[in-house]
């Protein structure tokens, strides 16, 4: 994966998605939406999944750099 793509995905995963999840949670809670917990669970799961994938990608990249 090109560095630019990795950097964008990393920013989305580490900054944007957690902030968006918090914003959505607060707004849905203010309007007493019944399934707020389900929405937040799904958003958190997606963020966690992307973080794990990016972490694995980072480890693989660093291991390739060490062996060169």
Helicity, in percent? over 70%
Any idea what the radius of gyration is? 16 Å
Distance between the termini: 18 Å
Task: Tell how many strands the DSSP assignment holds.
Answer: 0
Q: How many helices?
A: 2
Q: Can you summarize the main beta sheet? A: none
Shape: elongated
Count of domains: 1
SSE sequence, one letter per element: HH
Low-confidence stretches: none
As a percent range, the share of strand residues is under 5%
**In terms of structural class, how would the helical and strand content be classed?**
mainly alpha
Mean pLDDT level: 94
List the helices and strands and how they pair.
Layout: H1 3-30, H2 36-67
Describe this structure in words.
- The protein contains 2 helices and no strands.
- The chain has helices at 3-30, 36-67.
- Helix 1 (3-30) runs antiparallel to helix 2.
- The model has no long low-confidence stretch (mean pLDDT 94).
- It starts with a helix and ends with a helix.
- The chain has one domain (3-59).
- The protein has 68 residues and is an all-alpha fold.
- The chain is 88% helix and 0% strand.
- The longest helix is centred in the last third of the chain and has 32 residues, at 36-67.
Short synopsis of the structure:
With 68 residues, the protein is an all-alpha fold. The chain has helices at 3-30, 36-67. The protein has one domain (3-59).
């Amino acid at each position: 994966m090109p560095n630019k793509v990795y950097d964008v995905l990393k920013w989305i995963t580490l900054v944007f998605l957690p902030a968006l999840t918090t914003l959505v949670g607060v707004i849905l809670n203010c309007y007493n939406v019944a399934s707020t917990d389900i929405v937040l669970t799904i958003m958190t799961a997606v963020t966690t999944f992307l973080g794990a994938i990016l972490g694995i990608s980072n480890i693989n990249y660093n291991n390739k750099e060490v062996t060169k």
